[in-house]
Amino acid sequence: MFGDIALFLLNIVFTLFGAALVLRTWIQAARVPPRNPISQGLFQISDWLVLPLRRVIPGWRGIDWASLVGAWLTALVYLLLMFALIGVDLAALFPAILLNALLVAFKWAVNLVLWATILYALMSWINPTAPAMMMLDMLLAPLLNPLRRILPNLGGFDLSPLALVVLTQLLLIVVARLSAPVIASLV
């Protein structure tokens, strides 16, 4: 029972922090103004890890690689702690854990796109003039605009968020299938 509680708490804490690191990268790549409250909160939460990594890993082509490496390191620590709690021999399976950490960080990114898209769709119906809509639009426009060019406009009803939700769900299925052999080899 206590092991299950510990695994649950590990999952919550590391997933939220890893998603914050991925969102930090996404916000900077989308050139969202850094003075908004969400950006400032993300910076405060993650500066302790990202700023030291930036000394070693510079940004390149508008991508904050230090935050992405921080997300991967967070996933790595999460998996190491999780498998240590289960009782898996970490030394023998360390290369597989390194690969699985990449898949976990990628899963966090895809889940972040999924939840941002759902929030965007809900807010567009409830309060399209909310300040957060500008940030969501800046984040999701590069993903939604190609879909908008393909999908028909049904009398003002935008199908692109629905299509993006379906695509992210399909991508999550692929990631789960890719990580299943790695996880099976760990246990």
Which features characterize this protein?
187 residues; mainly alpha; 80% helix; 0% strand; globular
SSE pattern: HHHHHH
The number of E-state strands comes to 0
Mean pLDDT: 89
Oligomer: single chain
Overall structural class, as computed from helix and strand content, comes to mainly alpha
Could you describe the largest sheet, including whether it forms a barrel? none
For the record, the count of structural domains works out to 1
- Please state the overall shape, judged from the principal axes of the Cα atoms: globular
Number of helices: 6
Question: What's the helical proportion of residues?
Answer: over 70%
The fraction of residues in strands falls at under 5%
Head-to-tail CA distance between termini:
19 Å
* Computed CA radius of gyration, to the nearest angstrom: 18 Å
> Low-confidence parts, pLDDT < 50 over ≥5 residues?
none
Pfam family, one: CCB3_YggT
Transmembrane segments: 7-27, 65-86, 98-123, 159-180
Keywords: Membrane, Transmembrane, Transmembrane helix
Protein name: YggT family protein
